[in-house]
Amino acid sequence: MTFSEQLENIFVTEEEIPAEFKLPSEVHQKTYLSNGEMKQWDGAVHEVYSPICVPTSEGLKRKLIGTYPVCTQAEAMEALDAAVAAYDNGRGKWPTMSVADRIACVENFTGKMIEQKDIVVKLIMWEIGKSYADSVKEFDRTVEYIYATIDALKDIDRDSSRFNIEQGIVAQIRRSPLGVVLCMGPFNYPLNETFTTLIPAIIMGNTLLFKPPKHGTLLHFPLLPAFRDCFPKGVVNTIYGRGNTIVPDLMKSGKINVLTLIGSSKVANELKKLHPKVNRLRAILGLDAKNAAIVTANADIKLAVQETVLGALSFNGQRCTALKIIFVHKTIAEEFLKQLTEEVSELKFGMPWVKGVSLTPLPEPNKPGYLQECLEDARQNGASVINENGGATVESFFYPAIVYPVNSKMKLYREEQFGPIIPVVPYESMEEPIEYLIDSTHGQQVSIFSNDSAEVASSIDILVNQVSRVNINAQCQRGPDVFPFTGRKDSAEGTLSVVDALRSFSIRSLVATKLNEHNKNLLNEIVSGEDSNFLSTKFIF
Known about the structure:
Elements: H1 3-9, E1 27-28, E2 31-34, E3 37-40, E4 45-56, E5 59-69, H2 73-87, H3 99-115, H4 117-128, H5 132-160, E6 164-166, E7 169-177, E8 180-184, H6 192-203, E9 207-211, H7 224-230, E10 236-238, H8 243-252, E11 258-262, H9 265-274, E12 282-286, E13 291-295, H10 301-313, E14 323-329, H11 330-345, H12 367-380, E15 384-385, E16 393-394, E17 397-398, E18 401-404, H13 411-414, E19 421-427, H14 431-439, E20 442-443, E21 445-449, H15 453-463, E22 469-472, E23 488-489, E24 492-493, H16 498-504, E25 506-514, H17 517-528
Parallel strand pairs: 1-5, 8-9, 8-11, 9-10, 11-12, 13-14, 13-21, 14-19, 18-19, 21-22
Antiparallel strand pairs: 2-3, 4-5, 6-7, 7-25, 12-24, 15-18, 16-17, 20-23
Helix pairs in contact: 2-8, 3-5, 3-7, 4-5, 5-6, 6-16, 10-11
């Protein structure tokens, strides 16, 4: 059997799909959440085809798994009006609610979310081709993130539940919301990375417009009733449709206070420019990244190879934190490539439900074609695909390709491939990868592999001024979620972690007065009477 035939055989007939991993039925979304109502939609819809293909009389075809609304500017603006009304210039029920009550709403939502785990996990798997095991992990990690966010907010509120006295002024300092948030998440972690902005935005008292990613839309549908039932009307509103059709007018309205986007820096730049009062717009952005690994002559080659495979090919390399270019010292390049090729050849490939599978079909229909263009460009500029079957493609599946030697003339040197290609660049002097990082428009993370403490130490002091996280003898990654997650240059704006996200979606506000008997009595009356949710000494346990 040829390798091409092996790849074709991973796509099985519908009858051969294990029953426990099948969707109960196609998911045809005919409603959307706006202003506290599940509104009926009878207009145009977008057909959702899974990257999982099935054999037909006409060959392999992506399986239709459902549809969702393609709403218009009118529906988007209605949702915006609902969010604006719910915030009501900070006077709405949600922004003035006590922290304890907002936490209770989020806890209630989380309980209802957990009830939908089975269908949400299956939709992650079917919509974006993520392995079933990793889809479960994404759901569980998201729930853990929500609970960690709640605990972090309790800590912040406890620290704020006292008065500060300085220079004859008494004040209470708390965090207050910013307004209306436009939230747009990515397809590669459509639940987790969306919720790492959505949940802190909500819990801090903001109201929300939420646009699901193009790939990974249906999985949010089972959660809409929970949003409707757990929050006041207008706090969470979903918008659907073509982003370039519905989003520009939202920004031009000037009514969006916070833009949060995980995606392209080009898109983020264009959207920010549309806002008529850009100085009033806060942006929390997770953008492009081309994270490099630097494997020095003093590296543990086996460890470097293992971490490179994990970093470059987890979820097919479709992660912003993935290792997307590998610099290897010339003296060890041959051995590194030998071990890397062996390690990649051991990876299990197949359908997302296969136990232990590492490589699965790609969700973006045009991605295999783009990756082939990258390989052809590399060949024309002097590189080769060095692993057997590297770049073999059948429909939505692309087998990983190790490309060597990559140079500055190639797309793979500059562009974020966001897929299962491992570009390897030989170097002689540490100055070469450092210059690459200095010249790069990206500045998220870097990994350095070396057992020489002096070499690592000298590199750290340079690299921390180029990227936001330096990983020593380990792949680049986001977690743990309590660590700051951000980037320099065009890779990010704002910082996300459990605590940082709460700060990003709020601002410190204070109530202050001169410390005298009259004002002391006034404050005591307000606090003891529990007349204000802001001015309070309640302690949340």
